[in-house]
Amino acid sequence: MSERFVDLAVENGIAVVTINRPKSLNALSVEVLEQLGQVIKDIEKDDKVRAVIITGSGSKAFVAGADIAAMVNMTAKEARDYSIFAHKVFESIEQLPKPVIAAVNGYALGGGNELAMACDIRVASSTANFGQPEITLGIIPGFGGTQRLSRLVGKGKAMELILTGKMIDAKTAESIGLVNVVVPPEKLMETAKEIAQKIINFSPLAISFAKEAVNRGIEMTLEQGCKYEIELWTDCFTTEDQDIGMTAFLNKQKPTFKGA
Ligand code: HXC
């Protein structure tokens, strides 16, 4: 049996996915990406899973990047295939109709920062560091970094990080909008689970529509995005959960959403 580099544990509707390759600071080899992609597919099909947390094993690294040892001798064709495959896996995270939270426990560099950015929300340990150091290796980000970073933090900051390859600490990452919240290391998983729990109390259909509206809309003009929003907003009114939520409010009760 091949070695496991991605662990999955499901508890109370929350799947915790752990990148577990500590000897290489959880670097994303093809095997790791394949296993991560398969775990995301399994999660998509599993109705018991309502939210996902992605983290790294150990206290040092979330993911220290793509696997430099595996890339050093790649041909251009192999490098292209590697990038295409990672993009597919990250897209499957971004497009998963369930919320995904990155619990960034340490270094999130290169492909690691790119993985965190494919998630919906980033919670960081105060000991985490972020960066796109590819330029120091004679390459550029290839798992979506040039695109997702500028969308998240704006072109100027993205250019600064990508062109200088410098690392920033968690507080700085929070100040530029790369990270949602910074917590002490011992509170990292607890905070990520609290956020996941808060979200899964809501209608899973509304959550998936909201995620789709934001993710698809950001690729459109404002006018197209607003039209797209109207369609998804309208879809909410075909669900029982819309009735459940609004009726509960008017009756001063707490709604119990059905996901229907
Ligand atoms: C392979 C890695 C690795 C990586 C660390 N290791 N990062 N192996 N790929 N990305 C390995 C080291 O070689 C070392 O192995 C072990 O993990 C521990 O790392 P050290 O460097 O000894 O630790 P430390 O001195 O504490 O430094 C931590 C670090 C540093 C600052 C995170 O490891 C580092 O700079 N790593 C590379 C970060 C990086 O450049 N990432 C971007 C990769 S390119 P041994 O066997 O010596 O113990 C990328 C492109 C994506 O992500 C797009 C591709 C298409």
UniProtKB/TrEMBL annotation:
Q: Which SUPFAM superfamilies match?
A: ClpP/crotonase
Q: Which GO terms describe its biological process?
A: fatty acid beta-oxidation
Q: Does the keyword Endoplasmic reticulum apply?
A: no
This enzyme catalyses: a short-chain (3S)-3-hydroxyacyl-CoA = a short-chain (2E)-enoyl-CoA + H2O
Which superkingdom?
Bacteria
One annotated GO molecular function is:
3-hydroxyacyl-CoA dehydratase activity
**Keyword Cytoplasm listed:** no
Q: Which Pfam families match?
A: ECH_1
Q: Which PROSITE patterns match?
A: ENOYL_COA_HYDRATASE
EC number in record: 4.2.1.150
Task: Describe which pathway this protein belongs to, using the record's wording.
Answer: Lipid metabolism; butanoate metabolism
Q: Which UniProt keywords apply?
A: Lyase
How the protein assembles, per its UniProt entry? Homotetramer.
Q: Which family does it belong to?
A: Belongs to the enoyl-CoA hydratase/isomerase family.
Write down what this protein is called. short-chain-enoyl-CoA hydratase
This chain's source organism reads Pelotomaculum thermopropionicum (strain DSM 13744 / JCM 10971 / SI)
Question: Which gene underlies this protein?
Answer: CaiD
